[in-house]
Amino acid sequence: MSCMEWRDRLEAYVDAELSPGEMGDFRAHAATCPDCAAAALALVEGKTALRRAGSRYTATPDFRARVLQSVRTQPVSLHEEAAKPSMPIRRSNVLPWPRWALAAAALVLLATGLFFAVNRYQQPKALAEFADLHVSALASANPVEVISTDRHTVKPWFQGRIPFTFDLPELQGSSFTLMGGRVAYFHQEPGAHLVFAYQRHFISAFIFRDTPQLAIAESSFSDRGSSFNLQTWTQGGLRYVLIGDVNAATIQQLADLLQPRQ
Amino acid sequence: VLQAALERLPVFYREVILLCDVEEMKYQEIAEVLAVPIGTVMSRIARGRKLLRQMLAGEYGERSVSVGTMRKKLDRT
Asked: Residues A66-80: what's their mean pLDDT?
């Protein structure tokens, strides 16, 4: 495994979440690679410092025991369910439909159910990922790497940093101000993260190459838990995602301005 | 300084970091407690720690442009 691949797994290494074999492999690698060893050491030191700093948040032994108990009393894994002795199945002697029709109906139901289940799971998951990217960028010391309201400064900055180019229309005269941009990563894919201001709000515009991982329906939706509104569409093989704490109509206005003219 | 940075961290990063580093829970346990996929736990831990490092780098005077700075810039435009 290369250094780059190990770097992606360093967090799991310091949290002892790798398999015993992989833990040994990394230790062998670190013995011959001072850079990876130093990176792991920095993470371990950070973890130790966090443990000290976070001690004021330590749960009481009673609370901790209750949480762990609740985790351990949820034996609803599929394997365990499958391992349970099954109840005797009663077969009805009277089948009003031929077996092939029942099988076909079951298949259709299964396919429909899977389609909706996957969509219902993917949408909030992707929304949560983009909300994470938006919040973490704004909370960081450097929300944008290129700071400019000029699209002719921001767009060229991405040259050589992301593997595609995109259209960035002039927003002068609108209620939105371009604040800058940075490179963002979604499922290991680099993309553009533009930050726009609307009054005192910040809206993130993410532009990535459209991949199966970005399985979001063409729509706008809001996350009731976090109050973010999101608008997404694809154009020219690129996936655009707008997210912010402004209302859905404002997000839509910015989406209309950003959609490249065909 | 680290404690102050920890308090400024968005709550969904702080909770996974505390459960992992202070409570020493496994990723799977955290995922079950918070009812989120294990991949989300992993990405939040990585991003939360990265964000903390960036916050600390900002505290120690590295070039930083905070949201406050962006707002001031916005007020001038």
From this structure: 56
Distance CA B73, CA B77 (A): 7
Q: What residues in B contact A149, CB-CB < 8 Å?
A: 77
Question: Could you report the predicted ipTM of this complex, rounded to two decimals?
Answer: 0.70
In order along its 77 residues, chain B shows pLDDT tens digits of 777 888 888 888 888 998 898 888 899 989 988 888 999 999 999 999 888 888 887 655 444 455 666 666 666 65
Q: Which residues of B touch A147 (CB under 8 A)?
A: 65, 70, 73
d(CA A173, CA A11) in angstroms, rounded, equals: 46
Distance between B51 CA and the closest CA of chain A, angstroms: 6
Scanning A75-114 for CB atoms below 8 A from B yields none
Listed residue (B28, B4, B2, B5) closest to B16, CA to CA? B28
Say whether pLDDT at A194 is over 90: yes
Task: Write the pLDDT tens digit of every residue in A17-62.
Answer: 888 888 888 888 888 888 888 888 778 878 877 877 777 666 666 6
Q: Does B72 touch chain A (CB under 8 A)?
A: no
Query: What is the rounded CA–CA span in Å between residue A236 and residue A258?
Result: 13
Q: Which residue has the tokens 């569409």?
A: A233
Query: DSSP secondary structure string, A104-157?
Result: HHHHHHHHHHHHHHHHHHHHHHHHHHHHHHHHHHHHSS-S-SEE-S-HHHHHHH
* Burial class, B49, CB count within 10 angstroms (exposed 0-12 / middle 13-18 / buried 19+): buried
Please give, rounded to a whole number of angstroms, the shortest distance from the CA of B76 to a CA of chain A. 12
Chain A interface, best mutation among B65, B66, B72, by max A CB count within 10 A: B65
The C-alpha atoms of residue A133 and residue A53 are separated, in whole angstroms, by: 25
Give chain A positions within 8 Å (CB) of B60: none
In terms of average pLDDT, the best of A10-14, A63-67, A239-243 is A239-243
Alpha helices per DSSP H over chain A? 3-14, 20-32, 34-53, 61-72, 78-83, 99-139, 151-157, 248-258
